[in-house]
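Q: What structure does this chain adopt?
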Amino acid sequence: METQTGENMVTLSEGMERMEARLEAAAALFERAAALIEQQESERTGEVRKIVAAVETSREAELQKRLDAAEQTIAELRAQMEARAEAPKSERKTVPASTAQFLAKQGIALESVEAGTLDAALSGLSLEQRIAVKAQLLRAGVVS
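A:
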């Protein structure tokens, strides 16, 4: 019986050794597979980064062109505003006849309109009418 147990132990030991060798081979295969997967992933990531960089570069160029165009437009508009500011203003200031008549009835001369006097004169009008009269006076340049 001892010999049979000894044979079983030898057989079991040999089976364990074969199993260990197979497990080592499988572990080596797993390590190679993991290395290949990492390499492929890094290659894919690298390609994507290159594409993204190319897209960002073209986007930057487009944005730079738009910025240059906007700055040029701003410069042109400023030049136009300065030209208008420097242009001589006409000396004649006209107010609609109805506004002039209303102010004359209130005793206000158009040459010397003061804010307090104007507000007192317009107090009998509705809010919309007061706004309209003041807007006309502002457009005519009588009130500043």
